[in-house]
UniProtKB/TrEMBL annotation:
Residues 573-594 have a biased composition (Basic and acidic residues). This is Signal recognition particle subunit SRP72. TPR repeats lie at residues 227-260. It is found in: Cytoplasm; Endoplasmic reticulum. Residues 95-150 form a coiled coil. Residues 541-597 form the Signal recognition particle SRP72 subunit RNA-binding domain. The gene is Srp72. GO terms for cellular component: cytosol; endoplasmic reticulum; signal recognition particle, endoplasmic reticulum targeting. It comes from Mystacornis crossleyi.
Length: 679
């Protein structure tokens, strides 16, 4: 027995030497075989089990490694193998489990802290993640400092993009293309698109420099690495409205076939948003890229949500009503307070001509979620207007209390009521808005009564509206309020006098005394400069200098003015001076004394006389076979557009009266010219 034990120990020692040598060479598959042999000797060897888990992780077998840990949980306690277990769970996308494993570890090693930061980032807990990386950078000094700074900048970029937090300046030196890229993402989140584009261009330059130093890296490898930078550039172009440039760059990236399924999904989604309801076949192809395996682990929750919204919209555009309803209902169950799912459902109902049902759906949502009721009610009003129910649309808009006083809402309501000729309701809208501003100003100024510019603008618009519709008595109070605020406003005073002139003439006379005198109202205008200006409709001719005889002619009386020469009227070409012109030539033919009406039976002379079947000498002219064939209504390309050029027969519509034979030759020449070219 002792000899057998000694032999087993010697064999184990040899196997451990093999494991150590393979580990140093990076040959973990061969090391795993040796570890398994050691475990056959002693199945509960903790060190051997740890080595087996590490070998499986290095070979990418995370599920099998986690199985070994769970199977030998009594031996491999959390204190011994907490990092390996959490890492396997992280790589298997069991993020919540990984967080619990890290938090349950008795000792927080540096490796666990690094993994903790990654887990927090995946869980989108960006504030905690930022604190974790700051602590790591402060307390670590090794060759991974640059990677930690890159991760820290990624957290800041995510906060700016998804949480709209203004990022603080971390003072990071942007020496690598990863840091430049993350900085650009943070700028995009702030809306600084031009600055972000410059950062991305710098990142592209640094990336090319960094990768070109490695001789083994090909141009295809560089382009693949630059794909994510180019994708962000295209996104900026899309935000700037340069959709054609963005679309071209997106398609170039797709042709490279990058291995990052997250990048492909985002690009495909952005192309779908550019296509909208056009080019739906291309969108249906692109949507397949968003369904690739693993996409849900590569993108943030908001990115995935946006992709699902666009899938529902695409289903609506492609008339897949059931699919659209299914997707929008699923989205609504995931985010009950979100507006888009219910809006998509309402849009689908409208496409099916079920407007009443769509309005009911929106009303239910507004009742359940009062915080989002304003946007929903705006949509409901739009649907009512589309149905022609303007009054009902006004009622819906007036029910939005937080928007009642807004100038845009007041303007819209007044316009709609005016269209319906409901002037009383329009004036009521003005009155409510003015009262709201009066109460607001009183609460802000503790009883003082200064009027804000918006308040004064509303009063003026109300007065103008009342004057326009003949409500002068109601307009007077508004105009007096305006004049009280600005007594020097002559325009308001003039309007007030005009209103009083029809109601109280005496009051109008009293107020007219406040008008400035005509001397102060005179406008200093250079009339000559105004007349000579560009666009003047009337220009006064300047009198020329009078010298010598001209002055005497102007002073002398009875001088005969120089007569203008009259141009001789044009005579007809066939005018004969020996023949007296017809005195009735200016009258229409029917009104002339010698008009006898049209001669009937003129064509009878052309019909042959004699026995049946006989012809006259002129019958050859009526033979259709002897004339050119009729031109086609739509001549083929390259063919003559009219009759043949060799024919000397002029179609009837081109013939002139017998009295003008000289023009016949000219018309034939025109026909020949027309027959040379094709259409």
């Amino acid at each position: 027995k002792m000899a057998a034990a000694a032999g087993a120990a010697a064999a184990a020692a040899g196997l451990w030497s093999e494991v150590n040598r393979c580990g140093q060479n990076g040959d973990f598959a061969r090391a795993l075989k040796s570890v398994n042999k050691i475990l056959q000797i002693n199945k509960d060897d903790v060190t051997a089990l740890q080595c087996k888990v590490v070998c499986l992780i290095q070979n990418g077998n995370f599920k099998e490694a986690l199985g070994v840990i769970n199977t030998h949980a009594k031996v491999l306690t959390s204190d011994v193998i907490a990092f390996e277990k959490a890492y396997c769970e992280y790589r298997l996308n069991r993020i919540e489990s990984a967080l619990k494993t890290i938090q349950s570890a008795s000792q927080q090693t540096d490796k666990l802290k690094e993994l903790y930061g990654q887990v927090l980032y995946r869980l989108e807990r960006y504030d905690d993640c930022l604190a974790a990386y700051r602590d790591l950078i402060r307390n670590s000094q090794d060759e991974y400092e640059e990677e930690r700074k890159t991760n820290l900048s990624a957290v800041v970029a995510a906060q700016s993009t998804w949480e709209k937090v203004v990022p603080e300046d971390l003072g990071l030196r942007e020496a690598t293309y990863e840091l430049c890229y993350n900085s650009a993402c943070a700028l995009i989140g702030q809306g600084k698109l031009n600055e972000a584009m410059k950062k991305l261009q710098k990142a592209e330059e640094l990336c090319r420099q960094s990768l070109s130093e490695d001789s083994d890296v090909t141009e295809e490898d560089i382009e693949a690495e630059l794909a994510i930078i180019h994708g962000q550039m295209a996104y900026i172009m899309q935000l700037q409205g340069r959709t054609e440039d963005a679309l071209q760059l997106y398609n170039q990236i797709i042709k490279l076939k990058p291995t990052d399924v997250g990048l492909l999904a985002v690009i495909a989604n952005n192309i779908i948003t550019i296509n909208k309801d056009q080019n739906v076949f291309d969108s249906k192809k692109k949507v397949k890229l968003t369904n690739a395996e693993g996409v849900e682990h590569k993108l943030s929750k908001k990115q995935l949500q946006a992709i699902e919204f666009n899938k529902a919209l695409l289903a609506m555009y492609t008339n897949q009503a059931d699919q659209c309803r299914k997707l929008s209902a699923s989205l609504q169950s995931q985010s009950p307070e979100h507006l888009l799912p219910v809006l998509i459902q309402a849009a689908q109902l409208c496409r099916e001509k079920q407007h009443a049902k769509a309005v009911g759906l929106l009303q239910d949502f507004a009742d359940q979620h009062p915080a989002n009721a304003a946007e929903i009610k705006l949509t409901m009003a739009q649907l009512k207007i589309a149905q022609g129910s303007v009054t009902k649309a006004c009622m819906i808009l007036r029910s939005i209390e937080e928007l009642q006083h807004k100038p845009g809402m007041v303007s819209a309501l007044v316009t709609m009521y005016s269209h319906e000729e409901d002037i009383d309701s329009a004036i009521e809208v003005f009155t409510q808005a003015i009262q709201w501003y009066q109460q607001y100003q009183a609460s802000q100024t503790r009883g003082a009564n200064p009027k804000s510019p918006v308040h004064l603008s509303l009063i003026r618009e109300a007065a103008n509206f009342k004057l326009k519709h003949g409500r002068k008595k109601e307009a007077i109070s508004d105009l007096e309020e305006l004049w009280k605020q600005n007594p020097k406003d002559v325009h308001t005073l003039a309007q007030l006098i005009s209103a009083y002139s029809l109601v109280d003439p005496e009051k109008a006379k009293v107020l007219s005394k406040h008008l400035p005198s005509s001397d102060t109202m005179s406008l200093k205008v250079d009339v000559d400069a105004l007349e000579n200006s560009h666009g003047a409709t009337y220009v006064r001719k300047k009198a020329g200098k009078l010298t010598g005889d001209n002055q005497q002619k102007e002073q002398g009386q009875g001088e005969v003015k120089k007569k203008k020469k009259k141009k001789k009227g044009k005579l007809p070409k066939n005018y004969d001076p020996k023949v007296t012109p017809d005195p009735e030539r200016w009258l229409p033919m029917r009104e002339r004394s010698y008009y006898r009406g049209r001669k009937k039976g003129k064509k009878k002379d052309q019909v042959g006389k004699g026995t049946q079947g006989s012809t006259t000498t002129g019958s050859s002219e009526l033979d259709a076979s002897r004339t050119a064939s009729s031109p086609p209504t739509s001549p083929r390309p390259g063919s003559g557009a009219a009759v043949s050029a060799t024919s000397n027969v002029i179609p009837p519509r081109h013939q002139k009266p017998a009295g003008a034979p000289a023009t016949k030759k000219k018309q034939q020449q025109k026909k020949k010219k027309g027959a040379k070219g094709g259409w």
